[in-house]
Every structure is written in C-alpha cells, then in structure tokens.
Specification:
The relative contact order is 0.12. It contains 18 helices and twelve strands. Helix 9 runs parallel beside helix 17 and helix 16 packs antiparallel against helix 17. The chain folds into two domains: 264 residues, TIM Barrel (Alpha-Beta Barrel); 123 residues, no CATH class. The strands form three sheets. The chain has an eight-stranded parallel barrel with strand order 1-2-3-4-5-6-8-9, surrounded by four helices. The protein has a two-stranded antiparallel ribbon with strand order 7-10. It has a two-stranded antiparallel sheet with strand order 11-12. By secondary structure, the chain is of the alpha/beta class. Helices cover 46% and strands 13% of the residues.
C-alpha cells in the first residue's frame, strides 16, 4: 500500500531551509518596488535586505512583506559616513542620532554615546528589524580611537537590545582600508580588539576592494578573511560582488556576501574624507552580464546584445529569470541581476566543499575569461566598447592566473561559519 501513496508537496513554511551560503541585498532609495516584485515570485536565494535608516518610512511596505516572508531585515544606521566630513549630509543629520555636523569622537562617549545607541535600537525594534548593524565607524587601523569607542558602543547596543526583550541579532560592521587588512600584525590586532565586542556576525567592508578587484587583491582578501574566523561567528563580505566575491565564498573565506542592487559592489570612502559638496544621485540600475562578469549601462548592454552571435552567447536563457530573454535583461535589470547572483551562490553552496574551488575556477573564472576574449574580438563593436572589453580581457587573463596559483598554494581551506536564516535563528531561540 505504501508505494501507492502520492505525497503532496509540503507548504513552503514546513520545508527545511537549504544550508546555503548567505546573500544579502542592500536596498537603495528607489529599489524597493523591484525588490517587492522579486519577493512576490517566491525568490528564496536571498537571506535578507539591508535598509538604510533614512528609508525606513519610505520602504515600509517592503519591510512588511519581507518580514511576512521570513526574510532578515537589517537596519543600517549609517554611522560610518556620519563620522567624516564628506559623508555627512542633511538627510543623515535628520536621523535621531544625527547632528548638524559629522560625528566627533566625543559624541560616542558617556551618556551622549549611550543615548545615540539607544535611539538606533529603538528604531530597529519599532520597525520589526531582525538584525542591526552596530554604530561603527571607518577605522584607519588598530590604533584608531574610533575602534575603542565602537567596541564599547557594541556592548551598549547588546545591553539595549536585551532591555527591549532581545530578538535582534547584533552585527559588527567593520570598515577599514585594504592596506590595513593586508598587514598581518595590524589585522590580528583588530581581531583581538573585536573579542571585546558582542556580535553575532561580522560584516567586513574593505575600502578599495570589490567586484573590480585584481586577482592579487582577491587572493590577499581570501587569506586575510581567515583570521576573522577566530571570532567563531559568520563573516560576511560587505560591498563585494562579481568574481572576487564568488571566489571568497568558494575558498571558504566568507560565509556570505552583501551588495547593492546593481551598484555598491565595491567600497570606497574617498568622498567621505573630502569636505562636503553638492552631489547628484546615483547613475541608475545597470544590466548584469554574467558571461562577462560585467555590469553595463542599459544602452550599452542593448547595443552589445543586438548582435546575434553575442546575444546567443550572453543573452539570458533562463525563462524563470527572463521569459523574453535579452529584452527582459534590459527592461528588468534588478530581477535579472539579483536572480542570477542568487543562482551563482547556490551553485557554490551545492558543491561539496572539497571541489568548490575547482568548480569556481572551471565554471566561472575560465568561462568568463574565454567569453570575454571571444567577444572582445567580435566584429562590429564600437571603439569605446571594444576598448572596454579588451581591458577586461587583459584583467581576466591576470585574474585567472592568480586564482589558479592561489588554489595550488592553499591547503584544505578553513570554512567560514555559515549565517543562519532568520526563520532558523528564530526557531532555535524559542
């Protein structure tokens, strides 16, 4: 009799969550509508969404729907740009913990510092966030006076969360230059300092690193991230995308990544250090072309994909992602970019750890290198696009060589702790 029973699919809420590497999306000012559409299609490759504190009211509908579908909601209090003259702005000044000028060290001393931390926690609790990035600042090294204050503020934040009944996961957002991350002694001094800061995960934001990083920088990042495993908490590569991010996942250096919606896939604080200037908005969404590991302006992508041979090679053929192929890539770049990134991370997650690096090199690095070379040599490209692709071809050749060498030098790579989805953490805490 048993073999004649047809088992119906279990409701999504009762199915076990896949043990996947983490993927978090930083939602920009105008991204929420597109992200809402993505949630409505049942996308589960994304763990959660990082919301700018300035957009909490504007994106209230996204907060409601994301929470209803058991996504993590992470509040970014934006204290990092608030700590430097060029990062400060009128909109940041209007936050409950803001001021008419950028933050000074003394603003996070004593009762004044505690009050700022309390206001951040209150916003997170009142709006149903599940995680909160701590009130940290960009540091220049282990002796930066901000580091000591940030560590202390994390303790205040943990205490405040406990007073509000718990339920909020406290995250340490560590922002520092690549040159500091490279130096083992300085890096380990920072790691030692973090031991005094309560945090359930570490989000690592490295200046001058991201989706356009060279192979040499990526190898240095992969090596350096392992020192942070000593904390025993998940390490998330923040503001990273492209092949460098996927490489850090494949090599077991980070347990997840976070980046923006076709932007903010690398981090630079140069504008924060300059005196404030009138700045315009962002440049709009870009089109992700996985075969080239490139984000392109829609007009450029449209011209590229108009050539039949290139369209056949680079056009999206996943009907779940883009039912109308390249036309949807350009018309709906947000869905395409996030859907494809989620599948790339799932590919790495589903691969046994012992062969992840090999598969990453073969199916991502080598294929991108070959496709870029083939398309750079195609006839009919505009001079500007041909130059861009030739530059990418040269970069990919060197990136490929370094990654292959790195794989040969690395022993059995220690795997970073994997972040838990909100629903799993919630069930374990009950």
């Amino acid at each position: 009799m048993a073999e004649n029973i047809v088992h119906l699919p279990r409701p999504v809420s009762l199915r076990p969550e896949p043990h996947s590497l983490g993927f978090y999306v930083r939602v920009g000012h105008n991204d929420h509508r597109e992200v809402l559409d993505l949630i409505a299609t049942g996308e589960r490759g994304i763990f959660g969404f990082v919301i700018d504190a300035r957009n909490v009211e504007r994106q209230a509908e996204l907060l409601h729907e994301a929470k209803r579908h058991n996504f993590d909601l992470i509040l970014d209090p934006k204290t990092q740009p608030m700590g430097l003259p060029g990062g400060h702005s009128k909109s940041l000044a209007e936050l409950p913990w803001g001021a008419e000028r950028h933050h000074h060290l003394t603003d996070f001393d004593g009762d004044a510092g505690r009050a700022k931390v309390e206001r951040i926690v209150e916003m997170a609790v009142e709006n149903g966030f599940t995680q909160i990035l701590g009130p940290s600042h960009l540091i220049s090294g282990p002796n930066d006076p901000w580091l000591r204050r940030d560590v202390r503020a994390m303790g205040w934040m943990a205490d405040s969360v406990a007073r509000h009944g718990g339920g909020l996961a406290v995250v340490y957002s560590l922002a520092l230059p690549m040159e500091v991350l490279r130096k083992k002694a300085e890096r380990q001094a920072v790691v030692a300092a973090l031991a005094d800061a309560p945090h359930e995960s570490l989000w690592l934001k490295v200046e001058n690193f991201g989706d356009t990083a060279t192979g040499e920088k990526t190898a240095a990042y992969i090596e350096a991230c392992r020192d942070f495993h000593q904390q025993g908490v998940p390490v998330i590569g923040d503001y990273v995308g492209g092949l460098p991010a996927l490489g850090a996942l494949a090599f077991g250096s980070v347990g997840g990544i976070a980046h923006g919606v076709t932007v903010n896939q690398n981090f630079s604080a140069s504008s924060w250090r300059r005196p404030p200037t009138g700045r315009g908005g962002g440049g709009g969404w870009r089109v992700y072309v996985p075969q080239l590991d490139m984000l392109m302006k829609p007009a450029v992508a449209e011209v590229l994909l108009s050539a039949p041979r290139i369209r056949a090679r680079c056009g999206c053929r996943d009907t779940h992602c883009c039912p109308h192929g390249p036309r949807d890539m350009i018309a709906r770049p947000v869905r395409h970019a996030l859907y494809q990134r989620a599948r790339e991370i799932e590919m790495i997650s589903e691969t046994p750890s012992g062969i992840r690096v090999e598969r990453y090199l073969d199916e991502k690095v080598r294929r991108v290198s070959d496709d870029v070379a083939a398309i750079a040599g195609a006839a009919g490209l505009s001079p500007a696009l041909k130059k861009t692709l030739e530059k990418k071809q040269d970069a990919m050749s060197r990136f490929r060589q370094v990654m292959v060498h790195t794989a040969s030098e690395v022993d059995a790579a220690p795997s970073a702790a994997i972040p838990k989805r909100h629903v799993r953490r919630d069930s374990e805490n009950k």
